[in-house]
């Protein structure tokens, strides 16, 4: 069995509060390497290059990141106006790293709001920075509680011995503990449910193979890795009782953006009458976005499809490549959206408002 990745923190603050510490997920599963991010450029790059990835983990990394940067700004700017101007600039810069996961904007807006409130309450810049540190830590702790609650609700939807299929990595590596889509699996594992999990490899960046298969296997879960184009067969064979996936943004009507390929899994699940569950912390629900059509889908470099992971290029030079990182699953294909406050079902326009 591989090293138990569950004992590592996906995202953390360094002991001196001067850096963000992450597991470099681009090195997994071959190497567990912790790296320290100190500058705005390093934090931005780590998010863009998927060294830290998964909607909740990106949010926590951004919250710690803006706190670390606020400490640096406070060394030079003693007055709030100068401090806040630079704080806002760095906040907007970090927010530009990836467009689809709303948690990035959500966490940065939350830090911004706390910053302004602390100023309005009469605090000076050093005290504001201290308050920002507390908030960033709270965002992380909250993520652990939220994932566990999602796990409890998710577990109520399945039974011991069930086959579960998941896509991409909505696991511990995408959060601070338990994951979202994997939380029911980990809680079930603690309680002897003996699930049989199928992990889609998730082309082109292989989050399913490199991360989900890795973390579940290292935690002792019965996990079988499949290529993305095998999920139809696995479902048709009757090996899957439920699909659990994570998400990057839930629109007000229940349309969901998640890793590219998710919508295909949802359509196949519907064909075979298998429930399709989306696990979503309420921080991922964006009621300001009416439908999936308004969600910005990140486009990524062609090389991720044509050459990354291969020994040599596997596509003709100059061929056109389409490489969206996410797709939108229509709400009609979704059986339920599992939040930390409860299980939302159609009509989502009503139920999501209740849980948000
Ligand atoms: O591009 P990634 O690896 O950041 O995409 C991650 C996903 O699509 C996850 O399913 C989603 O962020 C939910 S993580 C709990």
Characterize the structure shown.
The chain contains 11 helices and 14 strands. It is α/β, with parallel strands linked by helices and 356 residues long. The protein is globular and about 65 Å long. α2 (55-76) runs parallel beside α4. It has helices spanning 40-48, 55-76, 80-95, 102-120, 125-155, 183-190, 207-218, 231-236, 262-271, 303-306, 348-355, and strands at residues 11-13, 20-23, 34-37, 163-166, 196-200, 222-226, 242-245, 249-251, 256-259, 276-279, 285-286, 326-329, 336-338, 343-344. Bound molecules: 5-S-methyl-1-O-phosphono-5-thio-D-ribulose (MRU). Residues 50, 53-56, 101, 168, 170, 174-175, 179-180, 207, 246-248, 258-259, 325 line the site of 5-S-methyl-1-O-phosphono-5-thio-D-ribulose (MRU).
């Amino acid at each position: 069995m591989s090293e138990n990745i569950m004992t590592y923190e996906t995202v953390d603050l360094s002991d001196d509060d001067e850096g963000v510490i992450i597991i470099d997920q681009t090195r997994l599963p071959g190497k567990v390497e912790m790296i320290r991010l100190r500058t705005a450029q390093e934090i931005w790059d780590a998010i863009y290059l998927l060294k830290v990835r998964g909607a909740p983990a990106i949010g926590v990394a951004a919250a710690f990141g803006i706190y670390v940067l606020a400490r640096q700004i406070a060394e030079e700017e003693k007055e709030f106006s100068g401090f806040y101007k630079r704080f806002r600039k760095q906040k907007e810069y970090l927010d530009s790293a990836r467009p689809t996961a709303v948690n990035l904007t959500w966490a940065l807006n939350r830090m911004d709001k706390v910053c302004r409130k602390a100023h309005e309450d009469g605090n000076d810049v050093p005290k504001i920075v201290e308050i920002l540190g507390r908030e960033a830590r709270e965002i992380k702790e909250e993520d652990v509680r939220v994932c566990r609650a999602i796990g409890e609700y998710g577990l109520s939807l399945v039974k011991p011995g069930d086959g579960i299929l998941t896509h991409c990595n909505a696991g511990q590596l995408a959060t601070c503990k338990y994951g979202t889509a994997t939380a029911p699996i980990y809680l079930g594992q603690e309680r002897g449910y003996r699930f049989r999990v199928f992990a889609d490899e998730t082309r082109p960046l292989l989050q399913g193979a490199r991360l989900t298969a890795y973390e579940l296997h290292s935690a002792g879960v019965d996990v079988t890795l499949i290529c993305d184009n095998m999920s139809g067969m696995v479902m048709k064979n009757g090996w899957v009782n439920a699909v659990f996936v994570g998400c990057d943004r839930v629109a007000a009507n229940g349309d969901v953006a998640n890793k590219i390929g998710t919508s295909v899994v949802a359509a196949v699940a519907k064909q075979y009458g298998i429930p399709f569950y989306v696990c979503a912390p309420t921080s991922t629900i964006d009621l300001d976005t009416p439908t999936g059509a308004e969600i910005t889908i990140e486009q990524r470099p062609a090389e991720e499809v044509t050459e990354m992971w291969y020994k040599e290029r596997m596509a003709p030079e100059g061929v056109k490549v389409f490489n969206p990182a996410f797709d939108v699953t229509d709400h009609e294909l979704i059986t339920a959206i599992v939040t930390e406050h409860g299980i939302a079902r159609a009509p989502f326009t009503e139920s999501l408002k209740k849980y948000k």
